[in-house]
Each structure stands twice: as structure tokens, then as C-alpha cells.
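Example record for the data management plan.
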Amino acid sequence: MKRIKTTAIVLAAGQGKRMNSTVQKQYLLIKNKPVLYYSLKCFEESMVDDIVLVTGEAEIDFCQKQIVEKYGFSKIRMVTAGGKERYHSVACGLLAIKWECDFVFIHDGARPFVDCDMIERAFLTVQKTSACVVGMPVKDTIKLADQNGYVESTPNRSLVWQIQTPQVFEKNLITAAYEKLIATEESLKADNIVITDDAMVVEHFMNVPIKLVEGSYKNIKITTPEDLKTAENLLDS
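Corresponding structural encoding:
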């Protein structure tokens, strides 16, 4: 029986403008290790076969020496340059996969608290559904606002999830979806359609339902200085 092959694309090309730091957020330290280290370590220890690390072109050598070699990440098969927007970086990561691969995990390197159980749950699900995303039900009541800042509607809280990463897809499915995205991105901009995650690309271009998989409320994204403090507390606990 053919063994299923998996690759994780870990995104580390963001600028992190809300962090108010000259250092990109993925390289800021939590307990003396860069934010990026923690998610890479998790994928290194998981059932994933290979990792593509997507970073800024100017940071490729730094990542190779100060991340890959320094911490001995043997599964990182490629360090490649990303693009202007997040979806450009994902597209670059997909193009870098020249080896046998059945399923692709796409993960934000600024989410240091992904864990192996989460990865395993997503892997088991994607084999049945071809597309799944990690997330958690919201705890708060959500209001949808109109353009003037008034409440327009209140969705049923039991049906609302906050979406996280990793997001996992059958390789041919996500590749085809991103090819369509890149080919039509100018028309999407003209229609004011903003792509915010990988599931949205599949939702927009492919007729495939996307399954929600339980993640963790600890699976936060490092975006502001307050998030770094929260991350340190989570590591302590």
C-alpha cells in the first residue's frame, strides 16, 4: 500500500507592522528562542514528512544558518522567498514542492502553539474530506456591523468559529485553487475581494466543502507586543 506523503508550508515572510518592532515578529524571542522556532519544532516532531519554510528573500541565508542549521531541523527541505501578500507566499511555497506529496499543511509561523495532536486530527480529517481547517468555536457573542458602525445582525454563536492554522488540503486541490487565484488576482482586487486565508481560496475557486477541525484556544497568533507576553505565560504553564 502506497504511503501517504505530507509537506508543511510554514510562512515566515510577514512584516508584523502591528508589533511596533524593527525585528520581524517571527524572529522575536520567546524564552530565548524565536517565535518561528516553536512551530517548526512541532512539525519536525510530527508525522509530517517535509517542510518548506517561506521567508523574505533577504532572510533566506539568515533562516538557513540561524534557524535550520542552528536548531538542527532535518525536515526543512527548502527555504524559499515569499511574495508581497500572504497568498503570494503560499503560492511560492506550493511551487517549491517538487517532490512526491499528497497533502499540504499551510501554517503561519507566527502561531507557535500548534501541537502534534492538532496536526494528527487535521491529517486524519483531510484524508476523508480533501480540505480542512483548524479552529475553535467563538466564546463571545459576535455582531456584524454595517458600513456606518451600527449592528446589522447577530449570528448564532454556536455556528461561528475563529479560524486558525494549520489549514490542510489535498495537494492537487490547493495547487489548482492557487493557480486560479494568481491568474485572476487583479479582477478580485477590482471587486474588493480580500483573500485572508487558504480556505477562502478553495471556497472561492473550487467546489469542495471544507471541514472544521478542533484546534486550541492556546493556538494564538503573535501579532502585538501583548501577544508575546501571553505566549511567555503559556510556555510557563
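Summary line stored alongside the record: The chain has seven helices and eleven strands.
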